[in-house]
Every structure is written in C-alpha cells, then in structure tokens.
Specification:
The chain is built from nine helices and no strands. By secondary structure, the protein is mainly alpha-helical. The longest helix is centred in the last third of the chain and has 25 residues. It starts with 7 loop residues before the first helix and ends with a helix. The model has no long low-confidence stretch (mean pLDDT 92).
Length: 194
C-alpha cells in the first residue's frame, strides 16, 4: 500500500517544523519556511493568512501529533517500550540531520515571545508536552504506578528526553541519549508492578 502524497499545506507545515527544529522560530522567516518546503510564498500566505505565528503553531501541533502517534503505538507494549520508541524517534532526527535538528516544540518553548501575551505557538507547545506526559502517565498507571508517581515520572521522561536532545546537538554525540535511556528505564522498572 502506498502512502498518500502530502498536500501542499502539509508539506509547508512539515517544512516549517523542520526549519524551526534546526534554527528556532525567531531565526526563521516565513519566506525561508516556504522555500524549504518548496512552496510558493503566495501559497504559504494562502494557507496561513495570519503569517508566521499561525504556521509555527501548526508546525508544533504537527510535531506533537506525529510524535504522539508513535508514542501511543509503542506504549501498547508498555512504558519501557514507549520510552525506547520516544528516544529512538529523537535519535533518528538528531543523527539523520547530522546533529543539526532537534525538537521544534522545545525550540518554540525556549524563545522569548515578541510581545507580553502568550503566542499561540507557545500555547500549542504546552498542549503537546501535556499530551506526551499524559500518554506516558496513563501507561505507567496501567502497569501499576500510582497516579502521582506516574504523573511525575512522565514529566521527568519528557523533560529529560527534550533536554537530552539539546545536549546531543551541542555535543554532536548520541551518548547523552544512551545515558538518559539507561537511567529512565531503571526508574520505570522500579516504578511499575509488571
């Protein structure tokens, strides 16, 4: 079965996510995002009439949904399998980009907003992190962890993996992922009752 060809809008969103993961939001213009997606600038404004913030918000949601699908599927085999899949996903991104790309959700989260109000992309990033935490916490609870411990460990996993991806980029090494994987797996095994 062949995969459906992505629409122009989907290509623009995926391209924006990739650019943000490499350069951050503030260092990336909507013109560069369109060029990276091989889309005309006019098409970009057609699909995203509110401009860069709207496109960035969609890129964050796209990354969040894509990651959640992978995580949800892996968690069917339990929280350790979910952790391994979560780490493998980010390892692939870091290695395939020669340590140039990370997580666009994190990139949007750490940049200073241009105004005092919370931009939609930042709110979307918060929602994405919450969804990933929720998926992990649910799996941990289903495998015997109590509610509070599951929630705290899920937050730790997401925070550790996101920080580890940044460390891998800085160190140009996957060693931080290996170290983090080992310790997080030990914590999960000490927490669950399987």
């Amino acid at each position: 079965m062949t995969k459906p060809t992505p629409t122009a809008r989907e290509r623009i969103v995926a391209g924006a996510a990739d650019m943000i993961s490499r350069r951050g939001l503030n260092a990336t213009s909507i013109r560069e995002m369109a060029k990276h997606a091989r889309a005309p600038l006019g098409s970009t404004y057609h699909y995203f009439p509110e401009g860069k913030q709207q496109l960035a918000t969609e890129a964050v949601r796209y990354t969040g949904a894509w990651t959640a699908r992978s995580l949800r599927k892996a968690l069917e085999a339990g929280p350790v399998a979910g952790l391994r899949a979560f780490l493998a996903l980010w390892r692939k991104i870091v290695v395939d980009s020669d340590f140039r790309a990370g997580c666009p959700v994190l990139a949007v989260s750490i940049e200073e907003p241009a105004t005092d109000e919370t931009p939609a992309a930042l709110a979307a990033a918060a929602d994405v992190f919450t969804e990933w935490e929720s998926l992990l916490a649910t799996s941990l609870r289903e495998h015997g962890a109590d509610r509070e411990q599951a929630a705290q460990l899920a937050t730790l996993i997401v925070a550790a993996v996101e920080g580890t991806v940044a460390m891998c980029r800085a160190k140009r090494s996957t060693q931080p992922l290996d170290d983090t994987a080992e310790q997080l797996q030990a914590l999960i095994l000490a927490t669950i009752k399987d």
